[in-house]
Please model this.
Amino acid sequence: MKSLSFLFFTFFIVSIGFSQGNLQFNQVLNLSFSAGGANFAVPPGKVWKIETVSLSSYSSYFSLSVAGQSVFLKNTHSGYGPVFESFPFWVAGGQNVFMSGLNSGVASVIEFNVVP
Model:
């Protein structure tokens, strides 16, 4: 019985040491970008969940780069313009995000605090 309790206690301590933390809602951001694009930085200790992007023109496109790497988002055209099927898209804290399009647009982002 003692060995079983010891194993349980050891497993419990090890699992706490390797936990990833919890997410706590912080704020909603509406990030505007122009045709030339805009850089944004995810603050350390935060996580962004990019929910959706609205574009100013039906015939526009949207480009996303995270930490200098282009991210290709699957999109389809509906009767009202492009629909991006790759959302939500998660970005870790400390990353730089570059958003651009043929025209301007707004990205809807939810920011979370990473709580240990």
User: Anything to note?
Assistant: Helices lie at 2-17. Strands lie at 22-33, 38-41, 46-55, 62-66, 69-71, 75-78, 81-84, 89-92, 96-101, 105-115. The domain at 21-115 is CATH 2.60.120.340 (Jelly Rolls). The mean pLDDT is 80.
